[in-house]
């Protein structure tokens, strides 16, 4: 059942979430992987530092069931900060070009560029979201001593097992030489793989071609829409979103783009996974009944609430996403 006003609306939400790129300084080039135990999160901090501080370029695949999609990623760091270009190679052409917090989402078939400033990043090969310290209370971390092999590179296998049913587990493999995440699997309570991302080819450091940061599309005459993102306090507006064990609020913002109605968004994360709540005025194009959909580890639930339409999207079990949606309450301030 549809959860929003057609594929266009859901695509905008997904583009918004992916472009966020929701997902430690110093040296990240260890000759051997650091030693750790179940409560030592340094290995995850090393992965995150590598994703942010190193130059790298490669192709990776996303797989969920029989669905597979390839993307090409180039990441370069210079005196002005991070530069990144992500190309979706299969299906509808889409590109994401990022310089630090500014993200451009290029949609060639609509000749459209959506620009937005994003303070946080979550995209592969990054791994951490929100507060890292809480991870030790929600996941058991373990490392296999024997190195594995991904994209012709040795990598260290890491498992994150959830302590409850509110979240999924993760199987990671990080490059022994650089610390960069090479492969990530999301697994359910039965150990079944829901989705996975993995590099199939990769260059790290010297040899990364900076020219790959430039889009192949001529965008001179394209429409440019800049999304205005404004911090807000949902509680002061009468909105209350129930807490989910281990998930903490990361941000609350209002998104405004052209003539489109403002959309309020709350993001909560447990250090590995994020759940987004979108609140917008209900229209005739929204369904009358609640509905859900999913792909891999991503679940979406939408429902009408008075004059509003609520959409909850997250990398969490459907019961957790539904729990968040059902917890949302609005109590308008008395006049």
From TrEMBL:
It is found in: Periplasm. InterPro entries: MucB/RseB_C, MucB/RseB_C_sf, MucB/RseB_N, MucB_RseB. The keyword S-adenosyl-L-methionine does not apply. Transmembrane segments: none annotated. Residues 1-31 form the signal peptide. GO terms for cellular component: periplasmic space. This is Siderophore-interacting protein. Belongs to the RseB family. Keywords: Periplasm, Signal. It comes from Pigmentiphaga aceris. It holds the Pfam family MucB_RseB. It comes from the Bacteria. Residues 42-216 form the MucB/RseB N-terminal domain. Residues 236-328 form the MucB/RseB C-terminal domain.
């Amino acid at each position: 059942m549809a959860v929003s006003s057609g594929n266009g609306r859901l695509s905008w939400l997904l583009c918004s979430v992916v472009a966020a790129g929701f997902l430690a300084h110093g040296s990240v080039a260890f000759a051997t992987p650091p030693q750790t135990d179940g409560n030592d999160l340094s290995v995850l901090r090393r992965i995150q530092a590598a994703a942010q501080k190193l130059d790298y370029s490669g192709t990776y695949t996303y797989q969920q069931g029989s669905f597979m999609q390839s993307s090409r990623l180039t990441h370069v760091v210079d005196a002005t900060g991070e530069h990144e270009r992500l190309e979706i190679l299969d299906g509808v052409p889409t590109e994401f070009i990022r310089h630090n917090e500014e993200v451009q989402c290029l949609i060639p078939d609509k000749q459209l560029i959506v620009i937005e400033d994003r303070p946080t990043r979550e995209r592969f090969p990054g791994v951490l979201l929100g507060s890292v310290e809480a991870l030790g209370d929600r996941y058991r971390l373990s490392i296999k001593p024997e190195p594995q092999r991904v994209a012709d590179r040795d990598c260290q296998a890491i498992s994150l097992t959830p302590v409850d049913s509110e979240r999924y587990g993760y199987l990671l493999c990080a490059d022994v030489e650089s610390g960069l995440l090479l492969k990530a699997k999301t697994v359910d309570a039965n150990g079944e793989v829901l989705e996975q991302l993995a590099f199939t080819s990769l260059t790290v450091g010297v040899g990364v071609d900076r020219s790959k940061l430039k889009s192949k599309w001529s965008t001179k005459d394209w429409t440019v829409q800049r999304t205005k993102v404004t911090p807000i306090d949902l509680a002061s507006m009468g909105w209350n979103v129930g807490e989910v064990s281990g998930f903490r609020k990361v941000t609350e913002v209002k998104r405004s783009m052209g003539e489109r109605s403002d959309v309020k968004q709350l993001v909560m994360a447990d250090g590995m996974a994020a759940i987004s709540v979108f609140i917008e005025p209900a229209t005739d194009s929204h369904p009358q009944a609640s509905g859900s959909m999913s792909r891999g580890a991503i679940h979406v639930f939408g429902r009408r609430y008075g004059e509003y339409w609520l959409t909850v999207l997250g990398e969490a079990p459907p019961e957790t996403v539904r729990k968040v949606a059902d917890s949302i309450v609005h109590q308008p301030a008395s006049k």
